[in-house]
Amino acid sequence: MPRTTTSTGSSIGPELDASAEEYLTWLSVEKGRARNTIVSYRRDLLVYETYLASRGRTVDDADPDVVADYVADRRAAGMRPPSVARAQAAVRGLHRFRLEEGWATTDPTTDIRPPGPSRRLPKALSEEETEALLGAVTGDDPACRRDRAILEVLYGTGMRVSELAGLSLSDLGSDTGLVRVLGKGSKERLVPLGRCARAALDDWLAPTGRARWEPRRWARRGDAEAVFLNARGGRLTRQGIWGVLKKRARAAGLEDRVHPHVLRHSCATHMLAHGADIRVVQELLGHVSIATTQIYTRVSPGHLREAYDQAHPRAWR
Is 184 a catalytic residue? Predict the structure, then answer.
């Protein structure tokens, strides 16, 4: 199967049905969806077309039964619920696009209900565990300064790892204490920097921090503007930031508790626990729907047990 390339010539994956290619282009150009989203949708639609072919079908003659069977097949394959939901969204979006653009006369996904949002409590650290993680970075060399700033900014702002990796120096407000963040779908928002995050960031941006890793000649366009660099002077990637989290979590004895968005979840959970307005947290995190933010308002089993023990006259006290 031939591969599709971007305008810069970089390969982004196998070519799909013509209508699927048009759909992905529409998502990218007209809707402004992030490249990572397009790559994920391409992968999902490739699996969908492969499944249809195994049933002797194409996107042109897919019907509700085969679409439902495809979704069930994804679940049976062991995909996590969020991944199944994304795959289903990609298929629904494709068929809706085909109908609206005249590629098809019917939409086989009309009566297939999308899965509801996951109601699992996000896996956040306790405040004590967060302090331990933030305190695990000791030392004054550029790596320690950078890693300390990464942890403090992630926890202090609640931004996604991908958003942190994309930060440029021009995004940092000099006097306002606000940072411009480019979120999902290229949507911009302003988030405040707390005292600890600002201090850690200033420490990293000092002449004895980031400047030590600046190369004489930048390898790629945009690296010179990157807030966070690797030791070779390139922009630190999402994978690089994840590596920092794992390394520092290991030092704090929290390796099993840490995942890429753990400080984002912890930021939201702790703010709401201390009385922050839910719509403020929604704006801070860049959630389109407040329903996503409301997941953080659910009472954890530990807090439920503690409140019960303190309040019920026949509890174990």
Answer: yes
Enter the tokens of residue 61. 């003659």
Best CA proximity match to 146, nearest among 241, 46, 267: 241
Average confidence (pLDDT) over 222-239: 94
Neighbours of 215 (CB within 10 A): 12
pTM of the model: 0.67
Active-site annotation holder among 160, 248, 265, 270: 160
Catalytic residue among 42, 148, 248, 261: 261
Arch. (CATH architecture) of 129-304:
Orthogonal Bundle (1.10)
Give me the pLDDT at residue 9, please. 35
Q: Which of 184, 238, 247, 259 is catalytic?
A: 184
Q: For residue 301, is pLDDT > 90?
A: no
Choose the catalytic residue: 74, 210, 264, 270: 264
Give residue-wise pLDDT tens across range 124-161: 899 999 999 999 999 999 999 999 999 999 999 999 99
Domain range 3-100, CATH architecture:
Orthogonal Bundle (1.10)
187 is catalytic: no
> Which one, of 227, 74, 46, lies nearest residue 154 by Cα?
227
Structure tokens at 103: 């590629």
**Position 316 confidence tier, pLDDT thresholds 50, 70, 90:** low
pLDDT of residue 118: 54
- Asked if pLDDT for residue 6 goes beyond 50, the answer is no
Looking at residue 274, what is its pLDDT?
A: 87
Rg (CA), the chain: 23
Structural domain boundaries in the chain: 3-100, 129-304
pLDDT at residue 70 greater than cutoff 90? yes
95 is catalytic: no
